[in-house]
Design brief:
Helix content is 58%, strand content 10%. By secondary structure, the chain is mainly α. Strands 1-2 form a two-stranded antiparallel ribbon.
Length: 114
């Protein structure tokens, strides 16, 4: 299940807004009372606070975004350092090998986007 932050971000994007610009105008909260996260404050100029149904409609898009973010984090952790990658590129050009491409292909195939 997508978290509220992701669904709000998707709602903003669908309405030509971004979280980075509007984050000071929105407060998401969880009171630890078993009711979960909710929008405590919404002061986004020109855009009404989303209803529960509107937020729920972003569940699928939110799940997709969160899954992709997880794949990208995993890929980033599996790629070698930029120094090691540069060394592979240099050696590939010098020796006619494909070490760098092979490394990137393996990271990508081990962690497909979907």
């Amino acid at each position: 299940m997508a978290n509220l932050h992701t669904k709000v971000t998707k709602y903003l994007e669908a309405n030509s807004k971004t979280w980075n610009v509007e984050k000071e105008n929105i407060i998401l909260q969880n009171d630890s009372d078993g009711n979960g996260d909710y929008i405590k404050t919404w002061n986004v100029s020109g855009l009404a606070k989303p209803t529960a149904d509107q937020i729920a409609s972003y569940e699928s898009a939110g799940n997709t975004a969160e899954t992709l973010a997880g794949v990208l984090r995993t890929r980033a952790s599996e790629y070698l350092s930029w120094q090691q990658q540069m060394e592979m590129i240099y050696k590939d050009q010098k020796n006619g090998t494909t070490t760098f491409k092979d490394h990137c292909d393996k990271v990508r195939s081990d962690n497909p986007k979907g």
